[in-house]
Amino acid sequence: MAPRVVKGGPGLTEYLNATKIAEPLFGDVQKHVLEKAARPSGRRQDVLHPSEMVKSDWCHLAAFHRLRLEVEPAEKSKTTFTRENIFEEGHRTHSKWQRWLTEMGRLAGDWHCLFCDGYFWAEETPEACEYCSAPTSCIEYAEVPLNAHPLLIGGKADGFSPQDSALIEIKTLGLGSLRYERPEFLERYIVETDHGRLPDMTRLWRDFRRPLPAAVRQVQLYMYIANHFEDLPAERTIFFYDFKPTQETKSFTVAYDESFSEPLIEAATAIVDCLQTDTPPFCNLNGRAGCASCLEFKEDDK
Ligand SMILES: [Zn+2]
Ligand SMILES: [Zn+2]
Fold this sequence. Notes:
The chain is α+β, with helices and mostly antiparallel strands. Helices cover 41% and strands 19% of the residues. The protein is built from eleven helices and eleven strands.
């Protein structure tokens, strides 16, 4: 059989050109992953996601349009294979820490029975499905749903430890994720070497003493929702960081501070009010002129 010829989208073509890779199977895997990423995610579009709300470029007007039309953000189409690989690595790291905590009986949350497809809350590792009595081997951890229904906020924390009254957040830190999430932090560790400008990863990890600011904003919002809307007493969040280059780990604690999330709660309240009266809010980033996110919807209206 003749080898298959890979017909890729723009992302794949760009990747193959850049790396000069001729192996068809390698190309096929990348095409498969990019095609999967292009499909609708199944992520709820009728709620505000805390991960978006904490971004410095979160536009209230774009959020209003998105909720009204229930559409996915356009950035999904701009993904690359490396980016998808980073996400996948992140999921794997989550599973690893959650499995250890499950084995210890220290993880509370929703549990999903693969046998009957039921979801139920348990304070520790369940021995059987609450609905159909299927054994532990049929049950997977389904994390901690955090919903503020009146404010249309819907999120999920990586875990909750009842013994510690703490939410758990699991993060991976690598060159790839830093390039996307914290380029300015990475830039501080770039040194001139005989092989060009390279990051000093040893020094970077040694100096890494607190979670990234966006991660702190996000868990503060999670804790606010846990305490105010989910009846879950979250006094702090425990972070576990996996450092990809060396597999070293660090842990940090962030204490709950309600005032942190108040501006975001006010913004969500205002957006919900606007939806109820069908009156678009102003763009909070660039006023009447609008910003890149909300202008996208202006085009759609025409
Ligand atoms: Zn079941
Ligand atoms: Zn805007």
